[in-house]
Structures are given as C-alpha cells and as structure tokens.
Amino acid sequence: MQYIASLESSVLVLNKFFMALHIISAKRAFVLLCKETAEVVSVDEGKFNSYDFYGWKDVSLYKARSGLPEEDTTSWIKTVSFEIEVPKIIRLLFYDKHPQSNVKFNRRNIFARDENKCQYCGRRFPTMELSLDHIVPKAYNGKTTWTNIVCACTECNKLKGGRTPEEASMRLIRKPVKPRHSPILSLKLRSDRYRSWKQFLNEAYWSVPLK
Q1: Which of 48, 55, 164, 182 has its CA 20 to 30 A from that of 194?
Q2: Is the pLDDT of residue 45 over 80?
C-alpha cells in the first residue's frame, strides 16, 4: 500500500445541512472526528454513507485487509496499531451556520488566486519564495485590496521597487480581480483527488474544469 504524506491533505467540511463551509487539513479533520463533533461522509458509487471515527476505522481496516483496488487519489495514515484512510469530506454534527458568501482577503487566497505565479514574470514559485506586491505603491496611496495586490517573486519585486509597473517598464500578466468563489476551492476542484466535493457545491462551481 502506498502512503502519501497525508496529514496535510485537504478535507472539505460541511455543516449539519450538508452545505460546504471551508477546507481544513486531514490532521484537523481527525481531531474533530475523535472529539465526536464530526462524521465522515463517503461518496460511494453516487451514494452517501456516514461514519463516526470508529466506523471509518473499521471501513479502512476492511479495505486494507481485503486488497481492494485503490484509487490514485487515496491517502492513508499509518499508526503503530492500525491504518486509516484520510477522508475527503467530513460533516460537522452540531454546526448549523451557513457558509460565508464573501471570500476572505488574505495572503493564502491571493496566492491561490494567482496560482502561485509571479504576476510579472509568469513563473510559478513555492509560497515561501513569493511576496505580495502593491501594483500602485503605498507611497502613491495604493490600497491593500484584491485589485491592487498580486503575487510577485523576489527578483521581480526587487526590480519593481517602490514604482508602478509603468515606471519600472514591467507588465502584469493578468489584471487582478476579486474572486467570486474561494480560490483555494477552485484550485482543488481541478484535481481528481477532490472530485467528490463537486456534489456538495452549488452550480457556480460546476463550471470549473476537472482533469
């Protein structure tokens, strides 16, 4: 059995009404399962099955022992005494609030919106090698907003300095906009690993192409 570095795998969180809320790590998902504040929602051949932590542990044990064929998208965690599959979806049993309609303005979402690409040279970088650039610099009263902040690599950020792109003879590869939906969620939907999430999202997300 192949083990993927799984504790940081992404898990979709639903409220008690099966509405998508946000994405968390597998590590956080297992904490919620062990506290019995959430259950696993497994989509099998179009049917929904729910399991508490121990039920999911038994399902994982059965899969591991039966030699059932695995999907390439399956992640597992191995402990001293047992193996358990990382769920792709969990549901909060006591949370009835509706998802937020507004996308949070933060560093993580900006990187996701720009797909970790420097918006000046177009190359993709690890997050730790990217910074945020004010297109119109603060010195020129540039605002810290979706439409004035982009990802930039260290070299391009240094080259641009405290100037506008025009002053630095640099061009943006794409005009920044405020995303209508979670950029992180949109990126995840392009992967086969998270195809089952689609069933819990509204139709606005269904237009995102899946590989």
Answers
A1: 55
A2: no
